[in-house]
Amino acid sequence: MQSNVKGRNIAYWTTTGLLAAGMLSGGIAQLMRAPWNTQGIIHLGYPVYVMTILGTWKLLGVTALLMPRMTLVKEWAYAGFFFLMTGAVISHLVSGDGLTAVTAQSIFVVLIVLSWYLRPANRRITALTNMPE
Question: Which residue stretches of the chain are H helix?
């Protein structure tokens, strides 16, 4: 049983580390208005200032995921990342970019779901249904 918990922990930190690294680098690139990000956001039909909002949210989300405790904020970060990356997939598909253009975003969706699913008990919200009224 101990090795199962250890394996799950390794899988959690691997997926979470990859997710955090990707969101961190993407957030920094958006805040720095990297040319490829700027061209991409314009191609999708969004105003360039959206990059500042998305980049800031990504950095805050990474911070929330990696910090101890604050389980509710972690849930918000997972939800935000999920909406952000599924929105990116849909935006690219609607813009006519095709399936090959959404590979990276789709991988991040999988990492988000896996990281959320594999998170240890101390990173989960405890049941709120047992609270006294």
Answer: 2-31, 35-43, 50-66, 71-94, 103-118
